[in-house]
Design brief:
By secondary structure, this protein is mostly beta strands. It has no helices and eleven strands. It has strands at residues 12-17, 20-23, 26-33, 38-44, 53-59, 67-70, 83-87, 98-101, 110-116, 120-131, 136-153. The protein has a seven-stranded mixed beta barrel. Strand 9 and strand 10 form a beta hairpin. It starts with 11 loop residues before the first strand and ends with a strand.
């Protein structure tokens, strides 16, 4: 039996970041490309240039399906599977303000896709993201998403 807390409204992304619950429900979008075998999810936590932003990317050498995807230590950024990009100061800010998945392998990013179709993707995510040289970090926990695809590219 599903718990009411398991039901995630459509076109929402949420997570607890360093203990703070954040809903990234503005400008939410999902893009799927089977030629590059990649899914990208994106959302803002409100309006304005300083609104926090999250971007979740899942890349694979195979078609993206339901299942668990975990980051691999030392993987190249373009091949990262999966990765979380988070900024607490808004899009377009200095690159030094951006947190990305920890590539050391000590704290893997994990994305679990529970449902995927040609129109929608649902699942959970968690991980540790680091800023700059890794001296600053943020814990991403209890992440959930339910997003309709805006673009699906089959080639």
């Amino acid at each position: 039996k599903k718990n009411d807390n398991d039901v995630v409204p459509v076109n929402t992304i949420s997570a607890t970041i360093d203990g703070n619950q954040i809903n990234f429900n503005t400008g939410v979008e999902a893009i799927y490309s089977d030629s590059s075998k990649k899914v990208s999810l994106f959302g803002f936590a409100g309006l304005g240039s300083k609104a926090p932003v999250i971007n979740i990317n899942i890349s694979s050498g195979k078609f993206i399906t339901t299942g668990t995807y975990a980051s691999v230590a030392g993987s190249a950024f373009a091949l990262a599977n999966p990765n979380i990009i988070y900024t607490d100061t808004g899009a377009g800010e200095d690159a030094a303000d951006i947190f990305v998945t920890d590539r050391s392998g000590t704290h893997p990013t994990i994305v679990n896709i529970t449902s995927i179709s040609s129109t929608n993707i649902q699942g959970t995510f968690r991980g540790l993201v680091v800023r700059g040289t890794g001296l600053q970090s943020a814990t991403v926990a209890n992440g959930k998403f339910n997003v309709n695809f805006q673009s699906v590219v089959f080639q």
